[in-house]
Write a structure and sequence with these properties.
It is built from 21 helices and no strands. It is mainly alpha-helical. Among the domains are: 70 residues, no CATH class; 108 residues, Leucine-rich Repeat Variant (Alpha Horseshoe), CATH 1.25.10.
């Protein structure tokens, strides 16, 4: 008598992963989103299935997850990205770090710190150096206790100071160090700015903006009209971070005449940070223009301007301080109320 056996039931998660793996086409958002918000069983199945997928397809899947996550907060692949931090392929590991960009768990900070110091891939070390920046900021604000701000700063300074290290690792380390209150930071930024590599010099200017140190204003203003598009981009960003009112005339010129769209977008963002009536007029004019990409950035910049109105240096020139603060109360940052996760 024949034994009646039923096939093992395959979960929708596994079925989807196999379908994506076996296909050679572009991974669609609809397909990849079926892997989002994985359950514990899904994660275990993912670990079992992943090694069977060829390397190029693995990379395509990681890229698709990152692209979907950028489009929607519902596309949450956090647990899968954590799993892929151990992948043997450097591009997959780097993609996983990139996918965890907004994650604030202390365990990720510790993992990135280890990757920065020990990973054999310079690509992965560069992504780790970049990802540690916002953790250093949290540590400086007292919202992260392990690793400490001192430990993060020391590791980043070590990577930046090693001239044998890959350029991208060094420059991303410099950008992240800028959040530190360590007395050695300004010297590191100056050293980066004095180097010959244009991309390192641009990263140094980016770091100047992150320091919120007005002592860098002269350098930032000098670099705004640079011939190098990457430098103009970072200088515009730094001008916004430092809220440099003196940068407004040059920023207006960049917005209206620069040949590089990304540089113009950076300048538009900066106008939203600095504020003022003329900045508002320029931003509103962009909304009436035909460039959709610029309109989107201008809308966000106007939102920032509206939110910060009455608190920027430019506005202090236009309004009486008493009138500006009357009835508004104090700005309260909810992040100050967050408790540190052990």
């Amino acid at each position: 008598m024949a034994t009646n056996t039923s096939p093992t039931k395959i979960s929708r998660f596994v079925r989807t992963l196999r379908q994506i793996a076996d296909s050679s086409g572009v991974v669609s958002p609809a397909e990849i989103n079926k892997l989002a918000r994985a359950s514990q069983q899904d994660i275990e199945d993912f670990r079992a299935e992943w090694p069977r997928i060829n390397r190029e397809r693995q990379r395509a899947i990681v890229n698709a997850m990152n692209e979907a996550a950028e489009l929607s907060v519902q596309s949450d692949f956090t647990d899968l990205f954590f799993t892929l931090l151990d992948d043997p392929d450097e591009f997959v590991r780097a993609g996983a770090v990139d996918g965890l960009w907004e994650n604030e768990l202390p365990k990720l900070a510790r993992r990135l710190l280890r990757m920065l110091m020990e990973d054999q891939s310079s690509l992965v070390r560069a992504f780790a150096a970049e990802g540690l920046g916002h953790f250093l900021l949290r540590a400086e604000e007292g919202r992260l206790v392990n690793p400490t701000a001192a430990a993060l700063t020391e590791a980043l300074l070590t990577r930046f100071g090693d001239e044998r290290e890959d350029l991208d690792v060094r420059r991303h380390a410099l950008e992240s160090i800028a959040f530190s209150s360590d007395s050695r930071v300004n010297a590191a930024i100056r050293r980066g700015y004095d180097e010959d590599e244009p991309i390192m010099r641009a990263s140094a200017v980016f770091a100047m903006g992150r320091t919120n140190d007005m002592g860098w204003s002269e350098v930032v203003l000098r670099e705004l009209p640079s011939r190098d598009a990457a430098m103009r981009y970072e200088a515009a960003y730094a001008a916004g971070e430092l809220m440099l009112v003196d940068a407004l005339p040059t920023l207006f010129d960049i917005v209206s005449m620069d040949s590089d769209t990304e540089v113009r977008q950076s300048a538009i963002w900066a106008l939203g940070q600095i504020g003022g009536n003329e900045a508002r007029r320029v931003l509103e004019a962009i909304l009436d223009g035909g460039d959709e990409a610029l309109r989107t950035v201008a809308e966000d910049a106007l939102s920032e301007l509206d939110f910060g109105e009455g608190m920027t240096p430019f506005d202090l020139f236009e309004f009486d301080v008493e009138d500006a603060s009357n009835g508004n109360g104090e700005y309260h940052d909810e992040s100050d109320d967050e408790e540190e996760e052990e």
